[in-house]
User: Fold this.
Amino acid sequence: MTDRVHVENTVSRRDFLKIAWGAAGALALVEAAGVGLSFFAPRIVEGEFGGGFEAGLVDSFPVGSVTPFTQGRFYLVRMSDGGFLALYRKCTHLGCAVPWNPAEGRFVCPCHASAFERDGTVINPPAPRPLDRFVVTIEDGMVKVDTGKAISRDKTSADDLVYAGGVA
Amino acid sequence: MTDPLDPRPEDLKQRVWESIQRDELPPRDDRGRMRVVMNNLVLHLHPSKVAKASLKFTYTWGLGGLALLLVMLLSLTGVMLMFVYTPSPDTAYQDMLSLQTEIRFGQFIRNVHHWSGNLLVIVAFLHMLRVFFTGGFRTPREFNWILGLSLLLLVIAANFTGYLLPWDQLAYWAVTVGSSLLSFVPLIGEGLRNFLLGGPEVSAATLTNFYGLHVAIIPLTLMGVISFHIWRVRKDGLSIPHRLDGSIDGATGHQIEKVTTLPHLVSRELAFALVMTGAILLWSVWVDAPLETAANPDHSPNPAKAAWYFMGLQELLLHFHPVFGAIVIPLLGLGMLAFLPYQRFDLSAEGVWFRSQKGRWMAYVGAITGIVGVPLLVLLDEYYLDLPGTFPNLPTAISNGWIPLAALLLMLITYYDGMKRFFKASACETRQSVFVLLVMSFIVLTVIGVAFRGEGMTLMAPWEVQ
Assistant:
């Protein structure tokens, strides 16, 4: 009885070699894929879009203003309560550059007519979510925007706003 | 005394020629003709004999051969263009301008490349329709249908990557819009898009990536799969056209008559290739490929449209949540296409255009339903229906995704069931009718997107669209 169990659990030399070759082949494929993926991975250039920006002094942005930063591809929005918000200008629908329409007081995408409030809230679909935002920090009265990572959000929130000198 | 291995050592010229071309040219008899086809690197992709009935032009419309001709024209003109173009945002657009103004025949070569590329998308699509409607994918050709489907995808990928290279406004924003579709793939979408573009936006890295894909990876893959595709046609035999009564079209009775590939098939292919090459060259003499102003990442044109073959998808996106418009519905469609040859097929329908007389009527109904139904649905959604507004508490993926998709699938099931009962038709005929309906819907959506969408992507009459 124990003999039979023993026999059934024995891997034949042929099977062992088959498995070993298969495993080695699979490992080689994974390695090749890893090399390929890292080789072709996006290359980030420092100092261009994707880096940090000094937008300007707090006082240079009037309350209720929307200031475009072409290099940084964002809008610096100052809400009526004085809070700052940096909005990525890329439409959350299909990636068009969304211009600010001062006459209507909203962002209107030229591609598919998505419209967004001053704070990025969707007024008009097909955009599926509010405009993405970048992290804003205020140091010594200087507004800084980090364009390294666009933060996508499902809903706009008052917590997204940043105030000079802590919470207003 | 002559050496049996070297019968004519004295005739050097003859020996050199025979070392290159082993068979007698021109061949003396059918046996010789078959040998020439068998022993020739290019021709041996063909069988040495073909059914005479299959040569009928109105059965195949020469679409597969035309696709191959276009690939050859594209390779030739594409390699020429590589010599005068540098894939960098600083130089690409300038190179396009000098191509069109300074380089002799530059505009002409670009035109041939541009129009052949666009025509190839249409021809590959029509070829697929032809094979479907004549039942050409039936056993043993199922896998060749899959190969054809992957060729269609490769052609679209080639076209899409080439679209960016002129680096004008059209190129930049069409690729921005097109690649954003990818980012809606759940979980890995953003990463996939960033990987393809070499960053979050279309940039210098994107141009480098697309150039490499366009001139090396895609063409090489395409060549490989094309050879495989044509070779499988040889192995599986050409499908044979039949009339409604089951007799072989282009022949008397049911006897399959075979003729040698050389010259019967090859001469037809050459003649058609010559005529089509002439037509494409003529067209390219008169009609210039478009070139807009240089790409400006700060300013999206209004409207910003994807490449025309993606306009059907872009139109879907106006009505569905992006995950559904860009991912779920196209994948469902592709899945259905891939699965088609593995479903039951009426034996009597092989080689018969549209399966049967009943199949033809049902195809008409499918086409008309698509032509009438899709514009009605588009208008309904544009002016009356506001699903996200109707269900404000639901996520838009449900209100503008699952709900309309379920409604559409329900309509399709009703259509299938109704047609099958009304015509007392077989599953094969009814499936064809659904196929016609879906294909026609896709074409109508594409036409709406291209011709009826103007500024702000609002609906308007074609003459108001700039």
User: Anything to note?
Assistant: The CA atoms of residues 167 and 295 of chain B lie 6 Å apart.
